[in-house]
Amino acid sequence: MATRTLRRRLRHGDVDGGRNEHMDASGLDALNEPLLGNYSYDEDHSEGYDHRSHEDIWDDKKKEQLHWTYLFSNLIAQWAQWLVNILLGSGSIIGRFLPLPSIIQNGQGNPICLSPLQEERLRYLRQRLEVPFDGSRVEHQDALKQLWRLAYPNREIPPLKSELWKEMGWQGSDPSTDFRGGGFISLENLIFFANNYPDSFQMLLKKQEGKRAEWEYPFAVAGINISFMLIQMLDLQSGMPTSKAGARFLELLGEDEKAFDNLYCVAFRMLDAQWLAKRASYMEFNEVLTSTRAQLERELALEDTTSIKDLPAYNMLNQ
């Protein structure tokens, strides 16, 4: 009777915990199929006698066991997360001295443990995200000057408000007005790009590759948009990243503390390649940025990716 009832509930898709791994267009979970798959059931069977073969009955029992095993494993994962939250809580004495891993869901419902190193690097990255750009701070002014020196090493640094900044791709004479939601990290990303991949940086800055549009994307402002796009794509402003791209990024962060900055450089190079391929112009920038994000998500999903340098698009930085 229990098996027959379970099968009837599965058929109508109302079993608790039977969440399908497929996602609908809105990104929300959708139960498109029963957890254990579709199979036939004869509604005319007598309650007193089951006409099915012993093999069918045994197969149903195995399916039921698999179902309860799945529910039990989910329950264990929830208990583990609850325990870790207690031990690592700010008010926990044990959590201050015992470095236990955190557990998150990887975007496919599977738990992932974060090592203390991953947690520390994620915490530091979040601290960077919280710093807004402030044109009145000397260190932020110095960072802008550093970017100019890297971009134009043989030219004198202009005043912080000058029409010359437009040559780098700022929208006005005062670069500080362009940061908005990008924050100080977007300026750090540009500086990292210039320091670590100077050839690619100069090529994109000066639009040296390919047949360009008459109305090109502004380099510096595009860089700020890429930083913001990555923050959203990797789900870095949530309590704990749970998107597929965000979960994979946390794995890469364990291998490379500069994973975000390196991914930024890959994304910028990829955006320019998409721009040329689409023969895009200024008004199509958002469309190109969206397609760049989609391509990055596909590459991050590759199973053999263990570092940012394993991404296929990383090779473009060395061209």
From TrEMBL:
It holds the Pfam family ELMO_CED12. Residues 139-300 form the ELMO domain. PROSITE patterns: ELMO. This is ELMO domain-containing protein A isoform X2.
